[in-house]
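Researcher: Let's run the pair from yesterday's discussion. Sequence first, then tokens, for each.
Model: Starting with the first of the pair.
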Amino acid sequence: MTRPRLRDLGIEIGTLPPGPLNAITDVPGVWVGHTTVVRDEPRVVRTGVTMIVPRENRVWEDYCFAGWFRFNGNGELTGLPWLEESGMLGSPVAITNTNQVGLVRDAMERFAAEHSVRNGFWLPVVGETWDGWLSDINSFPLTEDDALAALAAAGPGPVVEGNVGGGTGMICHDFKGGIGTASRFCQAGGGAWTVGALVQANYGDRADLRLDGVPLGRLIGCDRVPGAYHEEGSPGGSIIVVIATDAPLIPTQCNRLARRATVGLARAGGVGHDGSGDLFLAFATGNHLPGGQTRRRLEMLDHGEMDPLFTATAEAVEEAILNALCAAETMTGFRGHTAHALPLDAVAEAWAARPW
């Protein structure tokens, strides 16, 4: 059963229009694919892999300028030293569970080797959040073939959200969380650009959850929807945010865009807890950077023209988080733990009762 997204409930947030799919795949050439692994035997597993694939999977040899930002660093995103040094992204961006970052990274190396990537660098970018409440994370259930299946499944079009891919076993603001996406269309520097965001949302306390300023989490008590962690307390959580745009940005500007994901996270109620890995990556496809060239001609927006892209990023990240919560369904997993879905009737009630 597919649950409605935020806008399907008649709730529109922000000031900029979304793209036609309201997804990161509104950015031309950006694909998304998932592998979802759910089983109860021999171990209870609720996990998977999500791939965000620039340039229709030609990014291995036609890089994108990229940048990143660490809001809170209790997490992992591989490949960052060279990305920071060179300002370039040379692989898809994968997201999975904490224990299998290395396996997914190795699978991407295997893809590069098997497909004879010669003009690229093999330092894949893989992020993680912890799904050990709903999945037996120490069973290490994923295989390299699972990771490659997510890459093979990547394509354009609508993005499945909620309990899917790397987000399968994730919890957000004490409700079931997971994968969410959104996009915004803006004009800057004499051009029209798309900014898309995809999140793997696995962070936050219920009391902090906001819906366009409405204190949604405080309006939905545990008497109505039990908290995921009950009396045992939250073990901490994380969020990975991937931002894509077709604007011609250079690495410094990608760093600036990645930092603005913090605004969208804060609007939804994220505060960057000590146990949270809040890692944000932004890439821009507006310049082509094929391997083997010795000189390049580049285009860039003036820094003073970037404000609309900053707004687009904040709005897309905020809505992507809310879409993850709307799409996610109640899940029971490891040791009988249950994470309940955000009740959409309560969301509609809170929105209708807002004083503005």
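Model: Moving on to the second of the pair.
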Amino acid sequence: MHIPDGMLSNATVAVTGAASVGYVGYAVAWVRKHFDQRKIVLMAVTAALIFALQMLNFPVAGGTSGHFAGGALAAILLGPFAAAIVMTTVLMVQALVFADGGILALGANVLNLAVIAPLVGWAVWQLAQKFSDSKSVKITAAFAAAWLSLMIAATAAALEIWISGNAQLGMVLGAMGGWHALIGIGEGLVTAGLVAYVLQVRPDLLDQSNKAGNFSPRSVAIGFGILAFIAAGLSFFASSSPDGLEFVYFEEGVGVAFEEVSLVSGIMPDYMAPGLSSDALAGILAGVVGVIITGVFLYALGSAIRKRGGEPS
């Protein structure tokens, strides 16, 4: 659900960009105040895992595919503000390195996937905790949070396309909602599975009242890191069918034709490392490199944020 450049009007690009910059700026200030180095590590490995899982497009129906988004997972693990930084990092690496998602449309993609999706996921997760603290309820809540977060993010993207004058409201809302209701099932299953894993190995990480002195994400960080590299290694086998947004806009013809702009070609466009004769190897290498870039960049960024802000209170 990465909006390319040219799909949105200049006004929509400007407004969504300004909103995203303001929110992410606040998120940076919040993380600077509240997070220590151990939580920065968890942010980095979560970003790397989400990047890798987003490469694994899975077939849905009728020639379309879906992929994991990850906003709800990041919010459940880290809260909505840290999740915004995690998701923004993933989106920036995808746009700049792999030419996936527009540069001008980055603000809209951040708003949908790094702001709205984590906030919705976080709200559902928090609401569920008020009713029960059982493991089964938490896993179910993770599924519901992920499904709804993707639906609302898809709705936001549809509204942005409509506001830009590139689609009729009823058609784009219905098509985006219908396909992402199916894609959201995959989103929910992956999120619920990963939350179940965290509940098994370190349930205290999901306790937002936990004191920093008792916080040790090592086992989860190692597990997430291993999963990220496994997912990157499997990325070449992902479905080549268009994802929900592409299918709705281009295949179903919901949106009007536009001239797609490519401001950055990326060093590994289409998630393929250059200079290799084997497409499988090129895809796997691109995935591994992407995982490393995402994790290292966020760790460096988070460390710089924390250093500037001093020790969290």
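Researcher: Give me one sentence on the second I can quote.
Model: Residues 149 and 292 are 27 Å apart (CA to CA).
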